[in-house]
C-alpha cells in the first residue's frame, strides 16, 4: 500500500502489541504472541461530545450501548469494556472475561445487570456475554468494513472509570500479530488504554465497524473488523462456554 506512514512500517513487519486489560492487570498472553511485547500508554483522551455526530439523539445513544465489565477472578480483578448488539447480548474481548469467577456488568446510568452466560471465541479475541436484564440500547453493525482514512470513534471505560469517546481514523490494516490465524485486522490512531478492551469502534454514523482488542507500541489501536465479528456470530461452533477460573 503506497503512502503508508513511516510509523506503520513496523506494523507491516510485525507489530509490538499488548492486550488492553483493565486496571493495569495484564492477562496471560496467547502462545502465538511475539516475544518482544512491550506495554505502551497513549495520551490525549478527549471528553465525550454532545454534538450529535454519532447518532440522531447524540451522545445519549452512544453511552447507552456501552457497558463496563468487571472480571472478578480467582485471586485477580480487572476491568474492560463491551457493547450491546441486542437487548440481552454483549460483545467484548476474550481476555476481558478469561479466568473469571464472576462477571459484573454495569450501564452508563449505574445499573448492574445480571449475567446469565458467557462464551469465548477460539479464533479471535472475542467473547459473547448474555444478560438476564435488558440492555438500554444497541447500535447497528455497519454493512462494510471501513477503508483507510475513514473516521473512527472508540467508546469505552478506560481504567474502569467514566465513559470516554476518543476520535481517530483508520490508518492501515495488518495481519493480526497476536493470533496469526485470525487474518487481517484494522489499525486506528484513536487512543486507548487499559480498560478499553472490548470497546466498540464506530463510524461517523454510529455504526459498529470493529472491536478494540490491543494496541501497538507506538500508541495505535488494533480492531477486530466487523466482518470477522459477523462471520463468527453466524457460526454456531465459533464460541464455546467460558470455563470458571480455578
Structure description:
- The protein has 246 residues and is mainly beta.
- It has two domains: 13-46 and 139-231, Thrombin, subunit H, CATH 2.40.10.10; 65-138, Beta Barrel (Thrombin, subunit H).
- Helices cover 10% and strands 36% of the residues.
- The strands form two sheets. It has an eight-stranded antiparallel β-sheet with strand order 6-5-2-3-4-8-7-15.
- The protein is globular.
- It starts with 8 loop residues before the first helix and ends in a 5-residue tail after the last strand.
Shape: globular
Q: Give the name of the CATH architecture of the largest domain.
A: Beta Barrel
**What's the CATH topology label of the largest domain?**
Thrombin, subunit H
Largest sheet: 8 strands, antiparallel
β-strand percent reads 35-45%
Number of domains: 2
The sequence of SSEs as H and E is HEHEEEHEEEEEEEEEEHE
Cα gyration radius (Å): 16 Å
State the low-pLDDT regions, or none. Answer: 1-18, 21-57
Distance between the termini: 46 Å
Number of helices: 4
Instruction: Tell how many strands the DSSP assignment holds.
Output: 15
> Can you identify the CATH superfamily of the largest domain?
Trypsin-like serine proteases
- What structural class do you assign from the helix and strand content? mainly beta
Helix proportion of residues, in percent? 10-25%
Organism: Isoptericola cucumis
Region (Disordered): 38-57
Pfam families: Trypsin_2
InterPro entries: Peptidase_S1_PA (IPR009003), Peptidase_S1C (IPR001940)
Amino acid at each position: 500500500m503506497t503512502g503508508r506512514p513511516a510509523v506503520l512500517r513496523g506494523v507491516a513487519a510485525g507489530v509490538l502489541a499488548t492486550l488492553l486489560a483493565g486496571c493495569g492487570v495484564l492477562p496471560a498472553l496467547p502462545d502465538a504472541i511475539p516475544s518482544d511485547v512491550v506495554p505502551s500508554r497513549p495520551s490525549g483522551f478527549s471528553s465525550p461530545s454532545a454534538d450529535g455526530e454519532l447518532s440522531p439523539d447524540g451522545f445519549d445513544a452512544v453511552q447507552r450501548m456501552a457497558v463496563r465489565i468487571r472480571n472478578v477472578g480467582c485471586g485477580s480483578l480487572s476491568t474492560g469494556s463491551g457493547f450491546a448488539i441486542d437487548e440481552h447480548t454483549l460483545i467484548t474481548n476474550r481476555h476481558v472475561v478469561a479466568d473469571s469467577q464472576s462477571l459484573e456488568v454495569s450501564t452508563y446510568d449505574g445499573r448492574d445487570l445480571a449475567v446469565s452466560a458467557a462464551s469465548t471465541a477460539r479464533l479471535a479475541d472475542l467473547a459473547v456475554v448474555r444478560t438476564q436484564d435488558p440492555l438500554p440500547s444497541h447500535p447497528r453493525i455497519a454493512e462494510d468494513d471501513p477503508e483507510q482514512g475513514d473516521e473512527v470513534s472508540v467508546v469505552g471505560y478506560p481504567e474502569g472509570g467514566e465513559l470516554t469517546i476518543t476520535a481517530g481514523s483508520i490508518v492501515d490494516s495488518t495481519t493480526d500479530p497476536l493470533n496469526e490465524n485470525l487474518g487481517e485486522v484494522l489499525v486506528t490512531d484513536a487512543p486507548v488504554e487499559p480498560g478499553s478492551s472490548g470497546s466498540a469502534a464506530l463510524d461517523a454514523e454510529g455504526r459498529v465497524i470493529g472491536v478494540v482488542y490491543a494496541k501497538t507500541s507506538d500508541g495505535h489501536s488494533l480492531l477486530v473488523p466487523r466482518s470477522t465479528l459477523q462471520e463468527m456470530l453466524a457460526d454456531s461452533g465459533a464460541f464455546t462456554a467460558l470455563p470458571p477460573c480455578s
